[in-house]
Automatic annotation (TrEMBL):
It holds the Pfam family DUF475. This is Integral membrane protein. Keywords: Membrane, Transmembrane, Transmembrane helix. It comes from Lutibaculum baratangense AMV1. The chain crosses the membrane at residues 7-26, 32-54, 75-105, 125-146, 166-187, 193-213, 220-237, 249-273, 294-312, 318-336.
Amino acid sequence: MATLGYFKWSFIVTITGLALGAWFGWHTAGTLGGAFSVFLICAVLAVLEISLSFDNAIVNANKLKEMTPKWQRRFLTWGIIIAVFGMRVIFPLAIVAIAASIGPFAAMQLALREPDEYFRIMLDAHLSIAAFGGTFLMMVALSFFFDEHKEIHWVHAIEERVSRYASVRGVEITFVLVLMILFAHLVAPQEKLTFLGSAVWGLLTFLLVDLLGNVLDKSGEALAGAAKGGLGAFLYLEVLDASFSFDGVIGAFALTQNLVVIAIGLGIGAMYVRSMTIMLVERGTLTQYRYLEHGAFYAILALSVIMYAQAIVHVPEVLTGLGGAAVIGTALWSSIRYNRRAEAD
């Protein structure tokens, strides 16, 4: 399939979403200026989501390789519905509902009628989300590097040495716990327990999802192949997407506080992430470019540290997205150079 063929549905969703955004802007403002403003915001939000989630697409593709065709299709259909509506709309609403001790319908009303108050509650919950998501993503990245069977190294001085210690049980967990305690001492005293509690839940969630995946994979025959290589990986990818998406939702509020506009813009971006995931799997791009996967996990590790740092200082989402894209771009460039040298030899 040609490259553009993978993005057919993304283009359709883009046209539909931008048209819907322009109509919504016209409906709420009643002017062409209002329509164009919402149209532009939706486009920028889509670009923001793509820049923040490109490494997510690479990790998705890496995990999808291990899944059965049935579960690959389920992730690429159900998963995108959960990603667009669940993680970009329902997930933030659930956080506000829990934080404000109100019902889901009341949280929806708050988002539509009092966006300023909705955003304030979201920001109040940001510390917990940053600690939870940062810990989960850090474990995702370290599990890739602390692998004694890992043979391909991009940054040899670091990766080769790290892989030697992979046989030491719990080394990556110890590393995360040390960082967790260090950052807990840097946050405000009244927020220390909140940060630590959320970080511990992030660690436990990773370990439980990883355990569930291993149990399902090893008991696949007993389950008649229904979940082998599938359900555990599916849950893992959904939690991973949740960790990525909330940062994008918070960043979206820098442009607009309207939940409908945010859902349209981030939903368009999520479709491109899905298309990139399919292309990476079907074309075997991760095999062709040997360091691309490494770049994605370095970007995830950097994002996890940034999420921890956001508990102390504000880090612009644009900087986060550009930084991740730069790391992945460098990894791609290194892969191309390696391929050229290999062909010459």
